[in-house]
Amino acid sequence: MVYCVGHNIISPLGRGSKENYESVKAGRSGLKRYVNRFADVEPFCASLFDTPQSFVSLCIESIEMALEECHGTIINTQDAQAVFILSTTKGDNLELLKPAQQIAHYFGNPNSPIVVSNACTSGVCAQIIAKRLLETGIYQHAIVIGCDLQTRFIVSGFQSFKALSPDPCKPFSPDRQGLNLGEAVATIIYTREPGEDNQKPAFWTLQAGSIHNDANHLSAPSRTGEGAYRCLMDVMEGFCPADIDLVGVHGTATLYNDDMEEIALERAGLQNVPKSVLKPFLGHTMGAAGVLETIICAMAAKDSNNTSQMLQVIKMLSGFGGVNAAIRIQCE
C-alpha cells in the first residue's frame, strides 16, 4: 500500500494546501490579464506569481512545508531509502535534470533524482512512478514535486497554436475559447508505511495508476478518447462507475481536449459522476497540474465526507503527443 503522509501547494492563490483549497472553495481565481509581462508577447490571461520566482527555491520551500505535515512519519531525506521525483515540462530551463539535482543536493539525498517530463500528464505519471518504485521495495519514501513557471517561450508557443483564451477559461462550455496558463509548485510525500505513532491517518492511499498513448497527433487528442478511456478503465478495475465519488478532469477549455474527455468519460460510464475542474482558478500549471489537482481533489472529497465511508477519487490528465494518464486514490 502507498500512503500520502504530507502535501503542499504554493500558487498565486496562497502558500499551503489549505489556503489554496479554501480559495478554490470560495470561488476565488488567480486569473488576470497581463500586458507586457514578457517582451514581444501579446496580452494574455493567466495565473502568475506577482514577482518572479526561483524554480529551485520554490520547490525547496514546498518540500519543506510538506515535510512539516508528516506528523509521526519520519522522512529522512538524507537516507538512500528516499527518492526525489520531479514533474516538470520545462524545469526552469531545457536541462531538466539540473534543477532536480540541485533540489536533491539541498536535502542531502544520495540518490539520483528522477525527472518526469511527459507533457501535461507529467504530474500524474510522476505519482505512478512513485507507486511502482515503493511497491517494488526499492525505496521507502518518494517525494513527488510538480513545478513550472511561465516564460516568454511557453506563452508565445501556446499563442502560436491559438490555444490561449483572452479571457478566463470556460472548461466544457459551448463558447470556450482556449486555456489559461498558470504557475505553481506542489509536493506529495508518499511512503510504504506510515509511522506507528502517526498522529493522524494518511491523507489518502494511491490505489491504481495507468498511462496510455493513443499516438493520434502531435498536438490534437484522439477524437474517440481511446487513450483516456483505457486509463479510466484500468484504474476502475474491480469497481463500477457507481463506486467512484469524484473525477478530477483535465478541463483545459480547449475545443478538442474537452470533447475528448467527455467522450472518454461517457464510454467509461462516468458521465454522471461529480467532476472537479480547477483550471478556471489556477490556470494550466503544466508540470504541477497533476500533483496540485490531486491534492485539491482529495481535500474536496474528504471535506464532503460526513461518514466513515472510503471515497474513490480519479484524477485524469491528457497532453500533447497523445499521452494520457489517470490514478485512483482512496480517501477516508
How is this structure best summarized?
This protein has 332 residues and is an alpha/beta fold. It has helices at residues 17-25, 55-68, 97-106, 122-135, 152-160, 226-235, 255-267, 279-282, 289-304; strands spanning 2-11, 14-15, 32-34, 44-47, 82-87, 114-116, 141-148, 181-182, 184-191, 204-213, 246-248, 275-276, 311-319, 323-331. Strands 1, 2, 5, 6, 7, 9, 10, 11, 12, 13 and 14 form an 11-stranded mixed beta sheet that branches. Strands 3-4-8 form a 3-stranded mixed beta sheet.
Keywords:
332 residues; alpha/beta; Peroxisomal Thiolase, Chain A, domain 1; 2 domains; three-stranded mixed β-sheet; 9 helices; 24% strand
What does the model show?
This protein is an alpha/beta fold and 332 residues long. The protein has two domains: 190 residues, Thiolase/Chalcone synthase (Peroxisomal Thiolase, Chain A, domain 1), CATH 3.40.47; 128 residues, 3-Layer(aba) Sandwich (Peroxisomal Thiolase, Chain A, domain 1), CATH 3.40.47.10. The chain is built from nine helices and 14 strands. Strands 1, 2, 5, 6, 7, 9, 10, 11, 12, 13 and 14 form an eleven-stranded mixed beta sheet that branches. The chain has a three-stranded mixed beta sheet with strand order 3-4-8. Helix 6 packs across helix 7. The longest helix is centred in the last third of the chain and has 16 residues.
